[in-house]
Every structure is written in C-alpha cells, then in structure tokens.
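Data availability (excerpt). The following record was deposited with the supplementary files.
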Amino acid sequence: MITANEVFKIGKMGRPHGIKGEICLHFTDDVFDRVDADYLVCDIDGILTPFFMEEWQFKGRDTAIIKFENINTEEDTKILQNADVYFPFSLAEEREDEIRSWKMLTGFSVADTTHGHIGTVALVDDSSANTLLEIKTGDGKTILLPIHPDLVESFDIKQRTITLNLPEGLLMLN
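Predicted structure:
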C-alpha cells in the first residue's frame, strides 16, 4: 500500500483526450519525464493507486496526454478524471541531485538564510525570462520572488525544502 509520505503531488488529471483511453494530465512538475518512471500514483477515493503508463506526449507547457495500461476507452478514464496525481519520492530521489526544473519546487517549503522560514511555493511562473516563485506565507499573504540558481543555498527533495540566500531587501519589495 502506498502512503502519503512516500509521494509528492505533481498535478491533477483532467478530461479524456480521444476515445482510446488517453487522458490529460495538468502537471506542476514534469518529473515523470525527467526520470525513468513506469507509473504515476493517483488518488482514487482516498486510496493512492499506481497506474502504469504506456505512453505520453506533451501538449503545451504544463499538460501531457497520457495513455495508461488497462485504460482503453473514454468510459475507463472516468475513474481518473479530476484525480490528484503523485510521484514516488524513491524514484525522484535516485535521480534528482539537482534542480532540473523550477516547476519541481511547487509545494516546497521555502526558507532564507537570513530571515528563516518564508512560506510554501504555491506556483512557479516560468512564462517569461524571469521565473517567479509565488509563495504563500503562514498568514495567508502571497510573496513573489524571482528565482535563479545562484540564489539557491540548498534543497532537499525528500523533505521538500529549499533554502535561498536572498539579496538584502528583496523580501521587503513585496
């Protein structure tokens, strides 16, 4: 049985795509493409269930069309529609020794070397040359921070934490 502390959320299933069992995955992290993974984990009525992928193709920056084994008709995809999608830490840890995509930071706890805990990454906006992290603080505020490899002090994929070394005054701009 897969437990919640063994996986991290990477997206949500959408609507069927076609009539042969393909379905849209709206992802925040493309880890399934960066590592050698055979399956994704979906939350089906509160039970984390692995679904083995036959094939997938990207459809835009944050959407993929996925065909799973034993899901062969549009009717079969109903069980997956709107399901949260997760990825196993064990597969990600084996191959993730660096940040390969800023989108992987979604859900990470963010701290600064000077100010300590800041909040949690709610969204990564990489639609322009300046990638921004949208961080939700404990008091419900939203902070936008530019992100660059030079700002990353450390990160831990298992703990889902990132520590930044932000320039003085950057947090005050928000």
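Summary of structural features: The first helix runs from residue 31 to 34.
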